[in-house]
Amino acid sequence: MNPKDDLEKKHFYTYCISEKDYIKKGERVGLFIFYEYIEKTLNEFPKINDDVLEIIRLFLNNIYLLISKPEENEKYLKYAVYIEEKAEELEKIGKEKIKNFIDFSDIDDEEIKKLNNLRINIRILEDLFWLIVKNKEIPNNGLYLVIPHFLNVSSKYVFYYIAIKYYDKLKPIKRLDNIEVKYNEEKYKEYLNKYKNKRLDEYI
Q: N or C: which end of the chain has fewer CB within 10 A?
């Protein structure tokens, strides 16, 4: 019986395009979050007239296809290579301009904010992709590597696009350690001694 017609199953199953069947939502949580984050990224995509950004947008639109038909990734690899070359061209210029980390939170320009949001969303999509691979939520097929390759070079392109186009509006991150505060030195030393003798895995 189709889960949609089964009262017990219809709210807890969904269609998985990589398996072409209805599966329990809980079996592919990472994959469905990945898809939903693609939608979020596309909904917030900045409306800027740039040919490379349009290729990035269309690629994101087509990730559903690439997941459902891994052989299609072969055709889309050329776009990853193209964006990589464009990103490297911008990086050569941008590295000469940008010498410090940028404080995007201190910028009021809406276009910069939308572009930076796109960069962050693409980075998160790349992390989510590796999470679904780790959890074995998609088939173990090397052609899927086209997707994280594209996401990686796209985020680089967007960063250097911002760095070059909006250089005069960007601000470096201010160092917090240049600001003096009154604090409890005894407690500071107590924490410092404790942290120096701990390992992170003790808290996992």
A: C
Q: Hunting for tokens 């939903």 — which residue is that?
A: 36
CB 118 within 8 A of CB 44: yes
Model confidence pLDDT, tens digit, residues 126-161: 999 999 999 999 999 999 999 999 999 999 999 999
* Alpha-carbon gap, residue 179 to 177, rounded angstroms: 5
DSSP state of 44: T
